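Example record

One chain of 829 residues, shown exactly as stored in the release files.
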Amino acid sequence: MIPSPTMIAKELDAGEGASGVFEARSPAPPADGLGRDDGLAFSRCAEAAERAYLGGQIERAASMLEALGAAARSDLERVRAHELRIAILTAQGRLDEALRIGRSALAMLGENLPDDGPARKAAADAELAAARAALGRRRIKDLLDEPETSDDRTRAALRLLMSLFMPAAMVSPPLCAFIAARQVNLALERGHGGASPFGYMAYAWVVARMFRRYEEAYELGALALDLSERSDQRELSCRLRLLLGAHISVFTKHLLSSLDLFTQAHEDGLRTGDLTYLSHTCVHASLVRFGLGDECEAVRDEVDGFLTVVQRARDELAAAALTSVRRALDVLTGASPARRAPGSAASDEAAHEETISGPGYGAVAFIHHALRQQLCFLFEDPEGALRMGSLAEARMQGGAGDHLATEVVFYTCLAQLSPARPRDRQLTSVSLQSYRDRLAEWAEQCPDNYRHKHLLVRAESARAAGEELAAMKLYDQAIEAARVNGFVRDEALASELCAKFHLASGRERIAHVYMSDAYDGYLRWGATAKLRQLSRRYPHLVAQAALAGHSSRPPSVFPASVPPPASVPPPATMASPATIAPPATIAPPATIAPPATVAPPATVAPPATIAPPATIAPPATVASPALAYPATVALPVHVAPPAHVAPPAHVAPPASVAPPPASMEELSQAPREPRPEPTATLLPIPGRILVLPLAGEMTPARVARALERIVTGAAARRARVVVIDVSGARRVEAGLAIALTQAAAALRPLGAQVVATGICPEAAQALAELGVDLSVLVTRRTLQSGLACALELARGARRCRRRVAARTQPGALSLRAGMSRHRRAQAPR
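Predicted structure tokens for this chain:
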């Protein structure tokens, strides 16, 4: 899990205008200014300006640095002041100004940045060729033994080039490539030192983005981490792991590996005060979780915390990017006005789009349009998806450099193939075949992240070509690949497209199955607005799924002494007898339950004792059939043979029936107000195991809430095993047992297993007599034995994932391993 943004924000808030990260180790600025002869005064003033920047006092820091640069006595002092100014200008989005200052500072050190135009492209190509030639003569692992430089000007040039890399990446890909290659050439020509690890990581980013040599890029990234750790340069850790996780490992490892890198980057950025790269780590962590299909509410809460961090750090670019992510999540969840992001009104949305269209906001505009493209396609607007994709593609300079760029390719393919789009309209300049080829390349390079996407595009292409048999097979393969690799959103999307394919071919029953799976997937994702859309557009396909997944309040029952409202319809308008439990199972009047929860009781009441309609709950509060539970009495039970019951037509309408006056004896025997039952709480334990103890009276309403808590909790925590202990329940009824089997069926697509504990032999025998099949569950008598079984199942799941990883990527270890690439290379295979 990403470290708490609230903790980071509190850390940034520590002190009056100073960052808690640097407060303890940075001396206060001298009172006598720069009048002293030694260089200590300059260093202290530079640190004071840096503290002001970290504390959020951007204007004060900028004015201090401007005065500091004017009072500097050497080129090295001026370069240091310019380096801090570049960081501030980058956070403010003034990228051109940052590059202008960087060009003048490099000129002081004898280094030149190429001018804009054809000369810049030629200079970048020449520098890249020189770097490739220099690296070609060495093995990557031998670069660790390169000598260190003792030249202060070389070290200063490497640091200055590092500070210019981010603004160059947002403005000019050729300039970014030149800066990355120049850092490598300087390190190889004059020796390692200072920021040389970042130079290798920046060059790895260029190799992945421009040349698509992903394995070589990952090796260079691992080299950069090794160099940083060997020289104990912790101040580089945040930016190194951000570049590796956001731009390189997404093409070689599962996205979970990127989240591991982002976690460490957060911790290191907080410890070292690297606020610019910390802020951009927040952005990429949110985008990766969005792409994985993590639960929307959890991601939205995390984004809110991230916004606090980046706003406190005064990073306007990262704040604008996170605002776009937050608004996309608001659309998906159908958030109420009180829960929406600040400034979500239409006028504020227009102002936001105007802001991100300005100079320096190209990367933010790309994120905004890419997320809007996904929303357009999910809500069945393929033409809007193509328009947004074209806008995002225009901002995607230098090729696909991160996971969100691959999503643009993916959704553009799906939008072009959509049957809802007119075939005579072409809204994108990129051909479908070229995008399909890129998806195929990524799927071959990293099947964990891209194979299911490539399969889904192939399925849509087969459908468009009329190849139904091939399309069926490819849809199923895409759904399974997305499920195995944990992409909840993509699994739901593939199921939805498959359902539409079968529906268009007249196979409505098959379409119902796939659309129900899609509904379940979107439910796990938390996309409430998408669920509403499916219910409106395809009510005949998702009705049962909607009822099963809907968390409603339990049906209300009017007491026997209180008549129902006047709006309750007469018995003739109620549900047909086929939908109500058999007459032989009706309990005596004092114990009648609502129709959705009526179950076979121990005795059969004669017709004369049937309660009048006035005691029946109104139909509007009847629970859905999918949540009905066959029994509400303790087990074991004896079911009496069927008996004849008078038809409903002989019962007088409700208005003509007056409730009999209650006697003192009846009042004394009336049921008392039940005590509030304990809330079922999911308890996580190591090994991705969840434990849910159930205690007290397990009414149908409580069982339904527990079932919902199990599914949502397991999806959010990516649990492998869920242990449900019913030893504390007063009675183990058929409804509770069926809920356990439903939980097992719902968790199976998530890759989780259910272990039920605490079912006594008598209850198990009674359940078997009622035909409740517990074979789909792993059952244990005690909680202790259940936990032991869960630990063993979790270990087996990890071993299975290792075997799958070994088959798809030889030598790969667990995707969840929290070690970096260079440590995994040393681990036993």
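Notes: The longest helix spans residues 783-808.
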